[in-house]
Amino acid sequence: MRTVLIAEDSLVALKVLERALQQLGYEVVAARDGAEAWRAYQQSPVPLVITDWEMPHMSGLELCRAIRQHPSDHYPYLVMLTARGQKEDRLAALEAGADAFLSKPLDMAELQANLRVAERILQAEATLKAQKQELQELNEELQLQNETLQHSYRLIEHANRRFTDLFEHIPVACFTVDVEGIIREWNLAAQQLYGYRKEEVLFRPFYEKVFQGAAASKLHEMLQHVMQGSVITGVEAEDYDSERNLHYVVRNAFPIYNPQREVVGAIIAVSDITYRIEYEQQLRALNQKLQNLADTDGLTGVYNHRAFQEYLEKQFQNALQRGLPLSLILLDVDHFKQYNDTFGHQAGDEVLRSVAQILREQVRDRDFVARYGGEEFAIVLPDTDCERAVAVAERLRQAIEQAAWRRRPVTASIGVASLRPDMESRKELIEAADQALYQAKRSGRNRVEVWTGTHSRQAA
Question: What is the pLDDT of residue 156?
């Protein structure tokens, strides 16, 4: 059972929210103001916090900032409750560290939806943390095995008189070849790894039976250096056993000298790292899946608001440092609330998914499409000046307007802004595009407006 910390100065609202969360199976810690909530969080950091905006002693914004700065071994999911509804308020909440923004009076369905999102994110974080711990333990185990292997190599180098017995029973696949590439020794571990008995391989060239194709070529190249007196370690390769099973291995080769210090052959030690490679591949795939889950909007399949903010910050700094153009498009589906009220939320969701699909189809692969919030979408256009961004925006507007909609025509209002030298943060670029979008809606909708630096104008 997860614990939720509630900060709400209204006793009635606090009790309603507390009862609703308890019915959903949450354990609730209630606080009547931000300062009380902050003290409770410091004593016992909880994974989920729901806070009112305006409270005595410490506001919701101050509480969010304090929690974000507080060291914790887990990510706290913060939900802001307020009767405020302006975009500036939403931006302020997000900048303060809030993950979600819910309007009062509280819609319980919307609250449950946000709680489900929070649970997915918190579960994904817990899974990733566990996977990282497993990887760390595996790396420590592999390091220990590597140290054991290196110790074995030192024993071989300093115990030539006991070489035969030690070589035969060392727990690492080892074999020796002479300067002609003929296999002279083949230990038990090599038999187990490759599946060939001694009598099948001894006194035959290494490339005749055990190593063929690319594996033989790579080993031959390695031995050319060893026969010149070099020690070659840590060479990764792909070998096949007698049943054609693939093994990922690491090869290490050392020259063998006669009493006259002439190289007369080489000893090759092979470590099977198949398990480690397969585990790393699985872990990378899982990490990518978790990252995609954390970055993707569940309804539309495009990037979510958090991923948008991170990507825009990266592109903003890159554009400033390298002097590259950067443009941002904000798009709002016209009369979407009316559409929802008329045809229902499922129909509205269908429109949002279709708009997202149109946006993806109409922009370049390198362009970044995200759901900004509600019926708003954001498109980041790297290395794109204002003129080209306007052309893209107009193409998007026309594509939405001309699409075959099931119930009634759908249009969109679009605001365009491009990076200017006097901008110091991505927030200024977002505000500029938002001003242009506001002008597009105020001027009749279904149009593209461009922010010019002091005001917005309609795109030609």
Answer: 46
CATH number, domain containing residue 113: 3.40.50.2300
How far apart (Å, rounded) are the C-alpha atoms in residues 389 and 239? 52
* Span 68-113, pLDDT tens digits: 898 888 888 999 888 776 788 788 888 888 888 887 887 778 887 7
Domains contained in the chain, number = 3
Same domain, 114 and 58: yes
Say if 458 falls within a structural domain: no
pTM over 0.85: no
Question: Does the residue 146 lie in any domain?
Answer: no
Three-state DSSP state, 26? coil
By mean pLDDT, which of 161-175, 322-336, 342-356 is the weakest? 161-175
Domain span at 93: 2-128
Assess contact for 76 and 45: CB atoms under 8 A: yes
187-241 confidence digits (pLDDT tens)? 999 999 999 999 999 999 998 888 988 888 999 999 999 999 999 999 999 999 9
| Helix 34-43 × helix 60-69 angle, to 10° | 20
**How many whole angstroms separate alpha carbon 378 and alpha carbon 25?**
36
Q: Looking at residue 262, which CATH number applies to its domain?
A: 3.30.450.20
Domain finish residue from 222, 247, 276: 276
The answer to whether the beta carbons of residues 196 and 215 sit under 8 Å apart is no
* Whole-angstrom distance, CA of residue 411 vs CA of residue 108: 30
Query: Considering the domain boundaries, does residue 135 fall inside one?
Result: no
Do 334 and 445 touch, CB atoms closer than 8 A? Answer: yes
Cα 316-319-324 angle, rounded to 5 deg: 145
Q: Which residue type is seen at 446?
A: N
